[in-house]
Amino acid sequence: MSRLDATFARLRARGERALVAYVMAGDPSLADTRRLVIEAERRGADVIELGVPFSDPLADGPVVQRAGTRALAAGTSLPRVLEMLAALRPQVSLPIALMTYYNPLLAFGLTSFAKTAVDAGADAVIVPDLPYEESEPLRAQAEATGLDLVQFVAPTSTPARAKAIARVARGFIYVVSLTGVTGERRELPKELESQMRTLRLVTTRPLCVGFGLSTTDQVAAVGRLADGVIVGSAIVRKIEEHAGTSNLVEQVGDLIASLKDPLRLGSSGGSAAVTKGKR
What we know:
By secondary structure, this protein is an alpha/beta fold. It has helices spanning about 5-15, 30-40, 60-75, 80-90, 100-110, 110-120, 135-145, 160-170, 190-200, 215-225, 235-240, 250-265, 265-279; strands at about 20-25, 45-50, 95-100, 125, 150-155, 175, 205-210, 230. It is about 50% helix and about 15% strand. The protein has an eight-stranded parallel beta barrel with strand order 1-2-3-4-5-6-7-8, surrounded by eight helices.
């Protein structure tokens, strides 16, 4: 059983939902990224989505784009991220999924990437600009090494397409809650509940919802529907606000703890948290 499979099985048995915390590698430095991931696990994150900076991040909103620009300016690259991950892995036990775009993987070489990523301690890879119809070359290399290739399902995915994606998904399915790029939103899309019901009919894979989630109320509400909640921009913004300060790690840790709290309570607790937050 992979680390991801074991994590979701354990959480499901306890009635909890996973907090998937996104961190851009190299922002503000790779040394800080190591400290932030260690703190994220300590404060309750269940999975880390570790962003690899790229010059043309099509799926990223302005907050994550700024983080990627800073990381690139500091010299962060895919090989350096993998080196950092190899040094970090003995210090953390939670699953780590690399979020990168397809060009860096092609430049690295798909076979070499899959092997190096697994050797470094990665559990999965998330590639937002790789549609499932074109994912077979990477999927073959990933499966050969035990690396999970996470697939995306969008609000525009038809039931037939969602079923086809679910058949090849590994680790979990990344449910995009809205059309557009990542970033904090005021409200959850009204169609999310029906989207999740449709997906439950075609797969038993864990469903993790991302894009637009930033508050504890939103996390609690999505926790009633999903197996996991992915939070990116809110965490990256907190890092941006406190970069270079002595309390960077503490501030980010406090945010992660607050985001995890409603997910520890299971679906009924999430409902209570939403009700309390709206009074």
